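Entry 12.
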Amino acid sequence: MATGRVRDWEVAGGIVLRGEQLLLVRNRRRNDSVEWSTPGGVVDPGETLLEALGREVLEETGIQVHRWEGPLYEITVDFADLGWRLRVEAHRAVNWNGEIVLEDPDGIVEHADFYDPDECEVHLVQSPRWVREPLLDWCRQRPDQMLSYRYQVTGTEIDGLAVIRL
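Predicted 3D structure (tokens):
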């Protein structure tokens, strides 16, 4: 069990739709694993969540968002053994323009495109449960109210994490 100070991460996720198609990015992680998600990323010091979201979506995909709606859902993940807490807020782009251009300064995003809902499900199988479940729930339900998710993760090795939804 981790002791000491918990490291808090605030992350913003962007749902960008083209008709019924959802913009997904394929991320290559440091351990060479691949996971799919909506574009987004960590909120830097001094940024608001929506400022960070606009910056991340533009950096990762070339899409410029002019107006956001939400939050659509929020996720809290406690990584007990690592001493991390992740908080994610997802918003929907309601006014955007641009074409997909990959120029991710972090070098993580290696592909981006719009996908039909059934294709999204296939890609998201590779993603952590705390990414996959909330996004697919939102896509299926399109609720009027914000959804809220909480997970607890134990373990310290990526291949051996145990994830429980609370």
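Annotation: Residues 49-61 form the longest helix (13 residues). The chain has a mean pLDDT of 93.
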